[in-house]
Amino acid sequence: MTTHFDPAAFRSVRDDRGLSRMKLAVQIDVHADTIVRYERGIAVPSVAALCRAADALGCPVGEFFTTDDADVRAAA
Q1: Contact yes or no for 6/66 (Cβ under 8 A)
Q2: Which of 21, 26, 28, 63 could form a disulfide with 59 if both were Cys (CB 3.0 to 4.6 A apart)?
Q3: 14: how many CB neighbours lie within 10 A of its CB?
């Protein structure tokens, strides 16, 4: 089973909380362009940035990850 950062989930959580990219960037101490890069899958946040984002968004870090279904089916 492979778990990886999911840019769409990251954006979805941010959108659901009504937080702009700029406000999130300020709260987690990164540049706003970095948030865009995370959400487009161009960059993967560091563990520290993920923890700060989870705190800022009021969610568990696991909300930003997904599991490959192909790995789950193969294990069954």
Answers
A1: yes
A2: 63
A3: 22
Residue 41 Cα distances to 4, 7, 14, 37, 74, angstroms? 11, 5, 15, 6, 26
53: closest CA among 28, 76, 21?
Answer: 28
pLDDT tens, residue by residue, 59-70: 999 999 999 865
Neighbour tally for 48: CB within 10 Å: 10
Mean pLDDT of 38-59: 97
pLDDT at 74 > cutoff 90: no
**Tokens 């999911």 identify what position?**
6
CB 43 within 8 A of CB 53: no
